[in-house]
Design a protein that fits this description.
Helix content: 40-55%
Largest sheet: 2 strands, antiparallel
CATH topology of the largest domain: Lysozyme
Structural class: mainly alpha
Number of helices: 19
Shape: flat
Distance between the termini: 96 Å
Order of helices and strands: HHHHHHHHHHHEHHEHHEEHHEEEHHE
Strand content: 5-15%
Number of domains: 5
Strand order of the largest sheet: 1-2
Oligomer: single chain
CATH architecture of the largest domain: Orthogonal Bundle
CATH class of the largest domain: Mainly Alpha
């Protein structure tokens, strides 16, 4: 080999080693930053980079949780901010408006638990603050509780109601769950990641990575096996929440229409006795049934729970009417209610018990006087006659007079007998109720259970 050839070969080897070194260093740098650890963390967001004014606005109010974000994750959060300020801007506009009626309440709930109030924005990431939202996996409500987790934190789910859709009650449940996760993991980003992935999954990922925090796991996620690795959805979930928080705290500065949660229409909560006729309540409050359901999507029927007191919500302006109604409600009888509840599509006919019939108003009559005479309530008369205002009546008008208790009858009934079910490994009351097509409440009542505790081999009574 000539000297010239030798020199060229040596130069080629040097260049090759430099290229390899550059590639390896780049690979190490990428893994160190944790940006593509699982192929799902980075976002290729199209559009112009954030402007200096956008960066300045986003830096003003980030909330308490943002202080727990390490600097190496700043660019991941920024990508999510860029998405919601560019391609996802319309989504941000819609969800911020949808969140407006609930944010003041949600923030007050988190403050009452001594938690960061910006956790109220997590429901925007979960559901876009849609109280009726349902996922294919079975999660429901603005806070997207799965059935078992919802029950664990006090959200009843039975044939009468699904309290996961009660956004006010579910917000308390979300606060309690997030507080537990924070107590378990020690910081808010990790607690938020566990809210999405599940506490078991987050625990396994931390253990496998040898880390204690979500962002620590994020950097090593690509090194974990498939069973312990966090999914791309979870890797983006925490940065997405942080981005939504920084944008929501600075809407006008970022060119969005401002929202006024503190000025939103107030909602009043009333406690209903069992078997309350909800349609009659809507009418007594001057609301259509559709409007009442908008405020109360958690009710599955037009009657409240058969044996438990439950919450109902009305606009604050209707609270006096609602309170007057609940003091003397139209109720359905227990016997006929049970019959109606046993069918998914009951054929219902109304029947009135007590003094009832019709009454023709005389000059000087008031509904209060008529209600007193017939031992009923003004609200019940209004409901029975589809009237909204007690002052619109006139002499000569004939009114239907309901009794104090309205019963609901269903055509047809089924023979009922007693069977038993033996509890299997990994069974819980919710799973058993689904298997047997009965409610958890019924299982607890039939077996005199107070909590959720059951044991393998236990025989549960099941009425058929």
């Amino acid at each position: 080999m000539t000297t010239a050839n030798t020199s060229r070969a040596t130069l080629f080897r040097v260049l090759l080693l430099c290229v390899l070194a550059t590639v390896l260093c780049a690979g190490c740098s990428s893994k160190q930053a944790g940006l593509d650890a699982s192929g799902g963390l980075s976002l290729d967001v199209k559009g112009a980079p954030l402007t200096s004014s956008e960066r300045e606005a986003l830096a003003q109010n980030k909330g308490r949780i943002a202080r727990q974000v390490p600097s190496y994750a700043d660019n991941v959060v920024e990508q999510q901010e860029k998405y919601y300020l560019r391609g996802g801007r319309k989504t941000m506009e819609v969800t911020s408006k949808r969140a407006e009626p609930y944010l003041a309440y949600a923030k007050s709930v988190f403050r009452s638990y001594n938690m960061p109030e910006e956790l109220a924005y997590l429901a925007m990431v979960e559901s876009g603050y849609n109280p009726r939202a349902r996922s294919r996996a079975g999660a429901a409500g603005a806070w997207q509780f799965m059935p078992y987790t919802g029950m664990k934190f006090g959200l009843a789910q039975d044939k009468w109601q699904d309290e996961r859709l009660d956004i006010y009650h579910a917000t308390h449940a979300a606060a309690q769950y997030l507080k537990k996760l924070h107590d378990d993991f020690g910081d808010w980003p990790t607690a938020i990641a566990a809210y999405n992935a599940g506490e078991g999954k987050m625990t396994r990922a931390c253990k496998a990575a040898g880390e204690r925090t979500f962002f620590g796991v994020m950097r090593k996620n690509g090194e974990l096996d498939e069973d312990t690795r966090l999914k791309p959805e979870t890797l983006q979930y925490v940065p997405r929440f942080l981005a939504v928080t920084s944008i929501m705290e600075n809407l006008p500065q970022l060119g969005f229409d401002p929202i006024y949660p503190e000025g939103a229409d107030q909602v009043a909560r009333v406690r209903l006795s069992p078997r309350t006729n909800l349609k009659a309540m809507a009418s007594a409050c001057g609301m259509s049934w559709g409007e009442f359901k908008t405020y109360n999507p958690h009710f599955k029927k037009n009657v409240s729970h058969a044996s438990q007191r439950t919450n109902a919500y009305v606009p604050q302006s209707r609270s006096a009417m609602a309170m007057a109604y609940v003091r003397n409600p139209v109720q359905v009888s227990g016997t006929m209610l049970a019959s109606a509840a046993s069918s998914d599509k009951p054929r219902v006919a109304a029947r009135v018990q007590g003094r009832s019939g019709t009454y023709t108003l005389r000059p000087g009559d008031t509904l209060t006087r008529v209600a007193r005479r017939y031992n009923t309530s003004v609200q019940a008369i209004l409901a029975a006659n589809n009237l909204r205002d007690a002052h619109t009546i006139h002499a000569g008008q004939t009114l239907s007079i309901p009794g104090r208790t309205t019963t609901v009858a269903q055509a047809g009934s089924s023979r009922r007998g007693m069977n038993t079910y033996q509890v299997q490994p990994r069974d819980n009351l919710w799973q058993i109720s689904r298997k047997l097509n009965v409610s958890v409440d019924d299982l607890k009542r039939w077996n005199n259970l107070r909590g959720q505790d059951i044991h393998v081999g236990q025989r549960l009574v099941v009425m058929r």
